[in-house]
Write a structure and sequence with these properties.
- With 74 residues, the chain is α+β, with helices and mostly antiparallel strands.
- The chain has helices at residues 5-10, 41-49, 56-62, and strands at residues 18-19, 28-30, 33-37, 65-70.
- The protein has one domain.
- The chain has a four-stranded antiparallel sheet, with no helix packed on it.
- A hairpin with a 2-residue loop joins strand 2 and strand 3.
Length: 74
C-alpha cells in the first residue's frame, strides 16, 4: 500500500513515493527515505510510552507506517 501523502509530508518529503525493489515488496522510497508498513509492534509500543494526546493527529494517519531507513545511498 502506497504511503499516504500526509505521511510523506510529515517526514518533509516533497516528491512521490515509488516501490522499492526486493524484499517483501511492501517498502517505498521517497526522497532519501524508505517507508514500510508497520506490523503493529512499533505502534503498540509507542502508544504505551507516549503521553495521552501527544502526536495524535500524525499517529492516526501514520500508525501503519514506520521509518524503515534514512539516507539512501550513504
Amino acid at each position: 500500500m502506497h504511503p499516504p501523502v500526509t505521511v510523506l509530508q510529515a517526514f518533509g518529503v516533497d516528491g512521490p513515493a515509488r516501490p522499492l525493489a526486493g524484499g517483501q515488496g511492501t517498502s517505498w522510497v521517497a526522497g532519501e527515505l524508505v517507508f514500510k508498513p508497520d506490523d503493529g509492534v512499533l505502534a503498540t509500543t509507542n502508544e504505551r510510552v507516549r503521553s495521552p494526546g501527544e502526536g495524535a493527529g500524525l499517529r492516526d494517519e501514520a500508525r501503519r507506517y514506520e521509518l524503515a531507513a534514512a539516507a539512501i545511498g550513504l
